[in-house]
Each structure stands twice: as structure tokens, then as C-alpha cells.
Design a protein that fits this description.
Blueprint (H helix, E strand, L loop, with lengths): L4 H8 L4 H8 L3 H8 L6 H11 L3 H5 L32 H15 L7 H19 L8 E4 L2 E4 L2 H10 L3 E8 L2 E8 L10 H14 L4 H8 L3 H4 L26
Antiparallel strand pairs: 1-2, 3-4
């Protein structure tokens, strides 16, 4: 059923029914039912939405995500004048991978650190650094989702990391809820980070990594860049300069 959103998402990732069913931990027959229009169970709905990094509504309403996925390409050299701030994030995928590995090495084993907490840690690391130094650290793109900022193409990049043997993605239970955990297999290469970036990374992890998923999500909902963005829209880095006292990390004269 070509018009089915699950079919379209699966084909966009070049996955067969058998491959997708295996990755979701469901039978091929169950997946076939969903692709033929049957609504997934709540548990399997979460699995499918998390796997493709889309909202639950996309699956339930049979609609492709409004915000397109961005191609993973090397960061381009910025030709803007030195005194101009960069408004459009310049993604640096390799730097993200090493930062992500370091985050997992340092705090990934904490029971509260699942996918939701990781989303918010990455967001605050990037946006706090931009507010403090008016430069980008990883420079990832983030969209406004119901539960807070979500890094674009996180699912795609982490799947690539899992396939290349850099991380392992596992499902676990945290209290009564299913949690997606990421386990580091390779050690991070921190040569891509300056001393200033490394110090910032450690400070952010010390400050935020003990928060529960709800606590850090609620905290992100107070942040002006998230508040001022329309639903599913790209969150602008420049908005950090309009933050209030709750989330600002910079002292202004």
C-alpha cells in the first residue's frame, strides 16, 4: 500500500519488510497489517515513531512529516564576514558523533539517561554554547516537538553509528516505561574539540544530566528559542539572545 506512511518511511530508508520488522522487534505479519491500514498498538506505535524519528500523529493520521529530513553532508566552510553571527546552523556530523560518544561514556549509564534526556542534553550543549561564545559547537538543527527540542536526523545518524560498530542501541525498562538506551562501543576522539568546547561539554553534563526526562523536558519548555518557534519548525540559534533568567547562561551588562 504505497500511500501508507509506514511504507513510505520504510522505503525512504531502503528497508525491506523483514528488516524493519526485525529492527522493531515485531513479526512481519504484524508489520504487514499496519502497512495495510491497521492502527498499531500503543507500544508498537511508539516503536515505529521512535525508529523513524517522527511524531505519533504522523503514523496515526497517515501523513509524512512536514519538516523534511536533511541530507547528511560535511560542514561547508562559512564565507561570511568574521563579525557576523552564523544564523543557519552548519552541521558537523563527525563532531556530533564524537561528542555523542563522550556523552554516552560519561553519563550514558545513568538510569535516567535515555533518548529523551539525550535530545535535550544535545540541545542545551549547542544552544548554551552559542549564547556564551556566539559560535557553534556541533551546530545541529533542532525542531520543536511536543516534548521539547529534537535534533534532526538523530535517528538516521545513530543507526549509522550502530551499523558501523560505534554504539549499540538497546531497549530497556525505566520504572514502568520503555526506554531507548545508547551504549558506547568505541572511545570518543576528542581531538575535534577545543579546550573551551570540552570544558563547556563537561559543565553542561554536570548541570543537566541528573534531570529526569520530565524535568529536562519541562526545563526546555521555558527556553525562549523553543517557546518562540511554531510547532515542527526549526529552532533558530539567534533566539538565545532573547532568553529570560530561567534558561540564560550568559551574564549581560
Amino acid at each position: 500500500m504505497e500511500s501508507n506512511v509506514i511504507v513510505r518511511l520504510r522505503k525512504a530508508e531502503n528497508l525491506s519488510q523483514e528488516e524493519l520488522a526485525k529492527r522493531l522487534g515485531i513479526s512481519r505479519q504484524t508489520l504487514l497489517k499496519y502497512e495495510n491500514g491497521e492502527k498499531p498498538s500503543t507500544r508498537n506505535l511508539k516503536k515505529i515513531a521512535d525508529f523513524f524519528d517522527v511524531a505519533y500523529d504522523n503514523i496515526l493520521d497517515n501523513k509524512m512529516p512536514v519538516v523534511p529530513s536533511y541530507n547528511i553532508v560535511p560542514a561547508e566552510k562559512n564565507e561570511a564576514k568574521p563579525d557576523l553571527r552564523i544564523n543557519i546552523p552548519q552541521e558537523n556530523i563527525e563532531k556530533f558523533k564524537q561528542v555523542f560518544l563522550y556523552i554516552l561514556t560519561k553519563v550514558g549509564a545513568k538510569p535516567n539517561v535515555g533518548q529523551t534526556v539525550l535530545y535535550k542534553l544535545l540541545y542545551f550543549i549547542d544552544f548554551d554554547y552559542y549564547e556564551l561564545y556566539e559560535e557553534q559547537l556541533m551546530g545541529l538543527k533542532y525542531i520543536k516537538n511536543t516534548y521539547g527540542p529534537t535534533p534532526v536526523d538523530f535517528a538516521k545518524i545513530t543507526r549509522q553509528m550502530a551499523e558501523s560498530g560505534e554504539i549499540e542501541i538497546v531497549k530497556s525498562k525505566y520504572f514502568s516505561r520503555e526506554q531507548t538506551k545508547y551504549l558506547p562501543i568505541k572511545n570518543p576522539d576528542l581531538s575535534l574539540l577545543s579546550a573551551q568546547e570540552f570544558a563547556h561539554l563537561n559543565k553542561e553534563l554536570d548541570r543537566l544530566s541528573d534531570m529526569s526526562a520530565k524535568e529536562i523536558s519541562d526545563f526546555s519548555h521555558k527556553d525562549i528559542p523553543w517557546v518562540g518557534t511554531e510547532d515542527k519548525g526549526i529552532i533558530e540559534y539567534e533566539a538565545v539572545f532573547y532568553r529570560n533568567r530561567d534558561t540564560s547562561v550568559r551574564s549581560y551588562d
